[in-house]
Amino acid sequence: MRHSAFLSGLALVVGLAGSAQAETKLLFSTLFPPSHTLYADVLVPWADAVKEESGGSVEIEFAPSSLAPPPEQLSMVENGIADIAIQYTGLLPNRLTGLTFTEFPGPNYSTEVTSVAIWHVYDEMLRDKMDLRRAKVLSTFSFPKTWFWTINDKTFETLEDFKGARLATVTGNAATAWGAVSDGVVAGPAFRYFEIVSKGIVDAYTTITPIDVPGFNLETYTKSGIDLGDIATTGTFILIISDRKWRSLTEDQRAAIENVSGEAFARRTRVLDEKVAETLARFEAQGMSLSEFSPELQAQLKEKMGFIEEAWIASVSEMDIDGAAVLERFHALEADLSGAAK
Fold first, then answer.
1. Separation of alpha carbons 191 and 89, rounded Å
2. pLDDT number for residue 8
3. At CA 322, angle to CA 321 and CA 323, rounded to 5?
């Protein structure tokens, strides 16, 4: 009887331990609504993969809404308000300048290629250069490349066409870059575009991806879309977890999360490329004109905007980052990866 009681007690202890491990839950606060492709087709499948890879011992729960405004996602995680979040690096230039190298005009092959290239650059060259002592970067990724969208009959075929044009852009590098070719830049957050565009305040808007045109209710007012080609830009995002929470996990749990993060997570952004293709096909079927700036105009615009990249290289040198080497490695990775991606 004593032997039986011992075994029963042991079973109870093991069961409780297993139950406790299964209750490891991580709170994910994201700015993206459940209807957004990134949320539904990237974040949720990744959370499911974490649970499966960890044998059910780690479960990610999504907060019903963001627990902090966009610029404070990183500090929110560092302060323990949420365990996991996504931070757009362009909103924290003082801390994450080294990761804003995707914001300069250049080739952009696909979201998947760019996301994987960012991850490798971060892992190889920037991991020890970032001010992220209280958070761990699980992965990096980008959004699809931005396009140029017109809302009236004004054409943009030469540099002269931009001088008096009214252009809506987001603040930061984009506004500075387009300000070099137009004196009519209207800079502000993307969620303000609807008011500006619907009222005809601008002739065109940019720094918006094809999937965000309907997302911001701009489709009805958009006459044409212009592929920026070799002067396309995008933004860098980091998937982060609280360092304190990370250290509280078991070694097996940390390994499980890492197995499905990093490059594996970055590659999940291929669904954004698929969504872009579907969206552009629908635009064209509905009669929207789609084109591309000529190679000559692209080269002229890139030359005009080149000072942005030069200023970044100078600024990150103060952080012991070789900006020129980072950009060289990034573009080389994109070129190498694009062959397989296409």
1. 18
2. 44
3. 95
Angle at Cα 89 formed by Cα 29 and Cα 187, nearest 5°?
105
181 with 293: CB under 8 angstroms? no
CA triplet 208, 30, 135: central angle to 5 degrees? 110
Written as one letter, the residue type at 103 is E
Look up residue 325 and give its two tokens.
Answer: 């080497």
For the segment 247-253, the average pLDDT, to the nearest whole number, is 97
**What are the residues facing 95 on neighbouring strands?**
none
CA distances, 340 to each of 208, 259, 333 (Å): 26, 22, 12
> What's the pLDDT tens digit per position in 147-200?
999 999 999 999 999 998 999 999 889 999 999 999 999 999 888 999 999 999
Instruction: Using alpha carbons, select from 224, 265, 240 the residue that is nearest to residue 111.
Output: 265
Amino acid symbol at 183: D
In the chain, what is the greatest distance between 2 CA atoms, to the nearest angstrom? Answer: 94
Burial of 197 (0-12, 13-18, 19+ CB in 10 A): buried
- What is d(CA 113, CA 339) in angstroms, rounded to the nearest whole number? 10
Rounded to 5°, angle at Cα 319 from 179 and 242: 95
Q: Tabulate helix, strand, coil % of the chain (nearest 5).
A: 55, 15, 30
Contact (Cβ atoms closer than 8 angstroms) between residue 173 and residue 103:
yes
d(CA 74, CA 78): 6
Most confident residue range from 13-22, 57-66, 127-136: 57-66
Where are the alpha helices (H) located in 86-225, listed in sequence order?
93-96, 111-121, 159-163, 173-179, 193-198, 212-215
E strand map for the chain: 24-29, 58-62, 84-88, 135-142, 147-150, 166-169, 184-187, 204-208, 224-227, 236-242, 289-292
Phi then psi dihedrals of residue 116, to 5 deg: -65, -40
Cut 0.70: pTM above it: yes
CA 24 to chain centre: 27
Q: What is the mean pLDDT of the chain?
A: 91
